[in-house]
Structure formats: structure tokens, C-alpha cells
Design a protein that fits this description.
The structure holds two protein chains of two kinds. By secondary structure, chain A is of the alpha+beta class. Chain A is built from four helices and eleven strands; from the N terminus they run H-H-H-E-E-E-E-E-E-E-E-E-E-E-H. Chain A has a domain of about 150 residues. Chain A is about 25% helix and about 20% strand. Chain B is built from 18 helices and two strands. The two termini of chain B are about 30 Å apart. Chain B has two domains: about 190 residues, Growth Hormone, Chain: A; about 210 residues, MFS general substrate transporter like domains (Growth Hormone, Chain: A), CATH 1.20.1250. Helix content of chain B is about 70%, strand content about 0%. By secondary structure, chain B is mostly helical. The longest helix of chain B is centred in the last third of the chain and has 40 residues. The chains are: A alpha+beta, B mainly alpha. Chains A and B meet through strand 9, strand 11 and helix 4 of A and helix 1, helix 2, helix 3 and helix 10 of B. Chain A: Keywords: Disulfide bond, EGF-like domain, Membrane, Signal, Transmembrane, Transmembrane helix. Chain A: This is EGF-like domain-containing protein.
Amino acid sequence: MKAGSRQLKPVVLVLVFNICFYAICQTAELQLCKMCTGTVLNGTAVAQFCSSSAGRIDGRCCLKNGTTDDHERIIGLDLSNCSLTRVDYLQGASTSSIIDLSLNPIANISDSAFQGFIDLNYLILPAGLVCPGGNTSWQKVEVKKENRLCEGQNNMCNQTGHMSMDCPENSICAPYGPGFFECSCADNYHGYKCLRQGEFPALQVFGPLGASTIVISFLLWVTQRRKAKSL
Amino acid sequence: MPPSCCGCLSQYTHHHLVAFLLTFFSYVLLHASRKTFSNVKVSISAQWTPSVQNDSAPAFSPEEIWESNCLFADEKQATLFLGALDSIFLFSYAVGLYLSGVIGDRVNLRYVLCFGLCGSAAVEFVFGTLTEWLHIYNIYLYCGLWVLNGLLQSAVWPCVVAVMGNWFGKTGRGFIFGLWSACASVGNILGAFLASSVLKYGYEYAFLVTSVVQFAGGVVVFFGLLTSPKEVGLCLESDTGLCPVETDTDSHRPLMSDEEDEVEVEVYDRRHQSIQHPEEPLAESPKAIGFLQAFCLPGVLPYSLAYACLKLVNYSFFFWLPFYLSNNYGWKEAEADRLSVWYDVGGIIGGTVQGLISDVMGKRSPVLALSLALAMGALVGYSRSPNDQIINAVLLATTGFLIGGPSNMISSAISADLGRQEALRGSQEALATVTGIVDGTGSIGAAAGQYLVSLIESKLGWMCVFYFFVVMTGGSIVFIVPLILREVRAMWRERQTLRHQL
């Protein structure tokens, strides 16, 4: 996806896209952080993680500046004791490393709820739920008190086991959240199904072609048609 | 008669060379773009379909890269559609040939040729490049564009044959046309080369490059082509005053100046008393022949039908050979593609050699008949080829020599003969019309053949396909039998008169 938009869309379009994208993201994040009353409590797993990774607590979130840009992103989310019944609106927190959903009456989690949560390494769920992607997607799964802890996301790409994770030709497998993988185009490949390689050298092809067309046309006109009788 | 006229038989000027090369490369570029389409089929069907996964496994993500295009559910359906596009193209090409020949004799050949080349280049650009850039994938749009492409491409062949017929007279026509009709095969090779060298940037660039090159060819033709020696005031050998442009040079030229055609003239006189009389007033501006009138010219109908049978076999080899080789012998696709070039090579040599022989003999149909009779044997032999690439290549080249040769000869040299035959008395413009009729009938045969071959193959197997080819080749002999009898009888009479004179 990134490769495709980078290659094809003009710069302006990308800029506009980015601005909109961030605006939407930020409001979604704010909603996530403010959807429950209170802030991250001291002593919880999220608070400990946040202080150890030098983040800033805002409502129920732990925010931190990204390494590549100034944009602040959610690295930890504590929605503990929040009366949640479903969790299909967490995409704004897809950069989180830690999420706490304990003490919520959640009935079940849809398969795609955590798709794209690449950095998620510590997930606290009510004990009645299974870890997203199944136990094979996590290095360690344990039940402590009333909580289920899903620790250490497994990389789905290098796994030999129940499912073939081979990506099609010209693409590289990359983790894409617990139980998910993504096939992104390999270096220099782009476009639909990663079928295209490199950039077409338009100038090198059409420059000489156009020039030789003009030269040949002129030469032939001079030697052939100049003397031709008009019709 | 001006001294520069008609006396010097082998005086080819640089105008002849340029006319030869321009018409040659016009058709090379056209056939290259046709070959491009058949070589990018795999990429196109990949573009039109979502990626295939086992039922159990989830679809690949991200969806934009792997699943977003769903014109067809799988590649099998896409292949069927591409085959249908081939048939659509061939039928509209056949219809177009009938029309464009008639137009070519009435409008300046250079304009028609240029229009055909540039127009079809533009349509191919829209078909392959623009739809991809704009992400418009629509079956009806594709079909419509391909019908249009067939119609536009059909303008080219009658025009190039007519131009060649204007420049090169009956003497040496067989050889020169044999050499010249290598254009289709050269086009195949060029198309395969162009497609393979830019395909990695995306199939749309294969279309872009071939269509731009074709458009450039159209521009060069527009500025450089002389459609007839008359345009530069030349008048050479068996030019019987049929040039589309009327010039003063032919007004004082007797119409019966064609010594090498005299035997045929006698024959036609004897057989077609009804056709215009030689003592007609000199033609001022040659009028274009009517479509039905051209159909009734001696030889046109038999050769058209014979060519329909022959082009069926020839184009079946063009479309199905790589598939047959990889299917029947289990050879890799690249190997099969490489091997199938030998059929083209045999066709080029066959067309040239047989053209040369027919020039020496002064008669074409006996050479054709002999070659076709041998071809029936060669087809049976080829169908029993052992699983050995070298033996297969040799047999393939032989079959190409015996089938591709006559096929090239009918579509070019004989079409030109028929369009400039003495029965016309130089009063009518018939070259492009006749070529269009012969090639159009042939293309109908070829289009029907694509369907029949796939049908016979799926129901009865490859062996029956080859027997079908044998029957079709026999059919083409049957259609030219009356012409053979006539030509052999004429030869016999000629020899007897010679003996009497001695």
C-alpha cells in the first residue's frame, strides 16, 4: 500500500492525504484516550511501561513522539474497568505496545480487532477470552487472577507449522498484528500484485524514437515525396 | 513510348527500395503489436483477477495489492475472455478487410495506410495503457475497442500489397513478394522482443511502446511513401496504367505493353470473352472496381476459398503451437516459444523459394499445388514427431516451408497478380479490393479455425486436430484445381505453338 501510493500519486495528493489521515487519526486517538473516565493509574502495567519508556500520560493513553516525525502516537492504552462490551474500534491505537482491557464485560473479540497491531507485545484481557490469533501467535500465555496475559507477539512469517505463510512472488512477508501477516512488495517491485519492477525509462525510450521519427520522415520526404505530383 | 519506360526490366530505383521497406515495416509494426497482445496475456489476466488462495487460508493483505481487481474470479475465466477477444478481433478484421480494400481503391492508399496504422495504434494505447492508468476494467469496453482495432488494422494489408503491386511488376514478383511477406514473421519476432523487454515495467508499457512505435511508423509512411511509380513520373515494366494517380506519362502508352502477360491474356481472352474488350478507349483515370465485380474476377473466388482453408491451418499454428508443444511434450513455455519460431523461418524460406520457382516457370498454381500436396504428408509426419526438440524443429521448419510458403504467396504475390490481371484491361483500380477479398475470406477461415481447433482438441485430442489440418490443406488444393488445369493447359498450348513455329 505504501509502495503503491509513493510510486504513483503526485506529491500534492500525498500531502493532502497525510494531513487528512493525521487529522482523523488524532481525533480517533483523542476519543480513545478520553472514552473512559480517569487516567492511567499508578502501579498498573501500562503506567510502569510508560514511565520506563519515557512517555506522557494523557487520559487512558500513554503517548510518545515517534522516532521519524513529531507526531505523537499511542504506545500504551489502559482501558481497564471501562464497561466495554466490544473492542472493534481500537485501530487508533495500532501503534501500542501494551493494551490493558481487564475488568471489562467483553463477550468476544473479533478476529480482525488487532490486525495491524505490529508492536503489541503485552495484552491484558479478561480471563474468559482467548488471546487474539490463538495461543500460537504469542510466546507466552498465562492466566493471572482474573486476567489473561498475552505476552510477546510471534512473527507469523518465520513460523513453520499449521499454515503456509508464503507470500506470492516478488513480495516479502511481514508481521501484521497477532496472527496476521502482510505481503508487501519486495524492493523495486510495486503495483498490483507486485508485478511491476522499476520505473519505465520514458525519456530514454521515447526521446530517440521521436527524434529518429522526425529525421526519417524528413529524409524520406526530401528524397521521395518532395518530387511527388500533387493529387 | 518514352525510352525510360518499360524497356528496362531490372532497373530498380531507390524509390523501389523505400517503397519495399516502408510497406514491409508497416506490416512488421502491425504484426508486432498483435504479437505483443498474445505475449502479455499472462500479465493481463493476472491484473484482472484477485490472487488465488486456498479456501482455508485467509486472503493476502493488504487488500489493495492482492485482492482489489475482480474483473474475473480466476485466471481460467480471464484466459477464456482473452481467447474470445482473439476471435472477435479476427472476425472484425475479416469484415474490415472486405471494406478497406474497397476504400483503398477509391481513396489515396497512403492516407488509408496511415489512418490504419495510427488509428490502430491509438486504439491499442487506449486498450492496454489508458484503461490501466485510469483503472477502468470493463469487459464491454475491451470488446468494443478490439472490434475497432480489428477494423482499423484491416486497412493496412490491402494497402501495402497494393502499393507493392504498383511498384513491382509481374516479373520477379514471386521472389520479391516472397521475401517481402516475411514481414509477418519479422513482426512476430520484433513484437516478442519488444514485449519481453518492457514487460517488467508492467503490461501497459508493452502496449505503450508498441503503439507509439506503430504510430511513429504511420507518421513516417505519411511523409515518405510513394504509393505508385506514377507519383514521381516513373513508369516501369508491367505497370499497366493502373496507378491511382493519373499522370500524363501513361496517356501515350499502349495498354498491351505487357509482353510477359501475353500468354495469360490469350487464355483469359478465350475464356472470358465477355470481359471488356481491348479496343476500349484509353483509360483516363482508372475507376475503382465494384466489390461484386472484383469477386467475379477470374481466380479471385477459388484463391479466396483456398486461402481460407490454408490460413486456418497457418493461423492455428500461430496461435496454438506453443500451447501444443508445452502441452503434448511437456516442454517449458520459453522453450516452446523458441521452437515455434522455426515454423516462421520455414514460412519465410518457403515463400521466397516457391515465389522464385513460380517466377521462373511463369505459373504459380502448379507450384502451390505441389507444395500443398507435400504439406499434407508433412502434417502427418509432424503429428508423429518424436519427443526430441531437434527433430521436431526440423519437421516444423519443413511444415512451415510447405504451408507457410503457399500461404504467404497467395496473400501477397497472387493477390497482386489477381488485382492487376489482364482481364481488367488496365481500366480499373482493383488491387486493394482483390487483396481485401482474398485476405478477408482467409481471415474468416482463420477465425472459425480458432474455435474449431479448441473444440476438436477438447473432444477428440490433438491427433484429430492434425487430421483436420490435413483435410483443410486438401480442401485448399481442391479449390485451386480448376486454375491448375487452366494454367497447365496454357503451358501445353504455349509449348505446342513454339514447336509449330520451329
